[in-house]
Amino acid sequence: MTHQPIRTLADGVHVVEARQRFFGLEMGARMTLLELDGGLLVHSPIAMKPEDLTPLGSPKWVLAPNLLHHLYVGPWIEAGLEVYACPGLSKKRPDLTFQEEITSQQSPFGGDVKLLPLACFGLTNEVVVLHQPSRTLVVTDLVFNIPPSAPWMTRVAMRCLCGYPGCKTTLLERIGMQRDLARRELTTLLSWDFDRIVMAHGEVVETGGKEALRRAFQWLWKKKLLA
Ligand SMILES: [Fe+2]
């Protein structure tokens, strides 16, 4: 996996992007780095080594934020970092030893971040992170924002999955989410103060993120599957 250089989005918010295929589709992958009071938090690591982040300081924590984003956490555990996981990942990856699973909004990463483990979608069990100083919501697969510049097969497949164009969920969430619970959890997320959304796949939404998230989940408040 080759990756791009570290890119700074805001004070204390950096990302590194890499190529990543998922079921044959080029989806890209983004790792997010948050500079917090207690140290550097690495969200959804890609294939990099802790020493590659030296310009930003020593990483302290790693978050494997959902059940599909855990492929590259092993080396970070071996390097001695505190690696946290979404609920259920310890069972899925018994070969890895995590510090603990994030099962509540209690943040082990200090007061600059808020956490919300989403229980409404068992395929991912995603933990969403809000970086309060920069008003940045960091999600993983909760929404995608595949750009027109993406390979045509990716665009066609995501369109078929109701995941393109723009900031979108996919058909999988429409089918698999527990809607009552999802409405409650999304209402909590939408009450948080953020403007930017950083996701693992697609283009960062630099501003207007709350409205983009609201639009992406419009279907959740409608009766029809494809509304
Ligand atoms: Fe993903």
Mean pLDDT: 96
Kindly name the structural category: alpha/beta
Summed up, the helix count is 6
Gross CATH architecture: 4-Layer Sandwich
The distinct bound ligands, ions and cofactors come out as: fe (ii) ion
Describe the main β-sheet briefly: 7 strands, mixed
CATH superfamily: Ribonuclease Z/Hydroxyacylglutathione hydrolase-like
The string of secondary-structure elements, in order, is EEEEEEEHEHEEEEHHHEH
Overall form: globular
Beta-strand content: 15-25%
Terminal CA distance: 38 Å
Assembly form of the protein: single chain
- Stretches where pLDDT is under 50 for at least 5 consecutive residues are none
Overall domain count:
1
Share in helix:
10-25%
What's the number of extended β-strand segments?
13
**What is the fold-level CATH name, i.e. the topology?**
Metallo-beta-lactamase, Chain A
- By CATH reckoning, the class would read Alpha Beta
SSE topology sketch:
Blueprint: E1 7-10, E2 13-18, E3 21-22, E4 25-26, E5 29-36, E6 39-43, E7 59-64, H1 74-78, E8 82-85, H2 89-92, E9 100-101, E10 113-117, E11 127-131, E12 136-138, H3 152-160, H4 171-176, H5 179-191, E13 196-198, H6 209-216
Parallel strand pairs: 6-7, 7-8, 8-9, 12-13
Antiparallel strand pairs: 1-2, 2-5, 3-4, 5-6, 10-11, 11-12
Can you describe this structure in just a few lines?
With 227 residues, the protein is α/β, with parallel strands linked by helices. It has six helices and 13 strands. The chain has a single domain (7-218), classed as Ribonuclease Z/Hydroxyacylglutathione hydrolase-like (Metallo-beta-lactamase, Chain A), CATH 3.60.15.
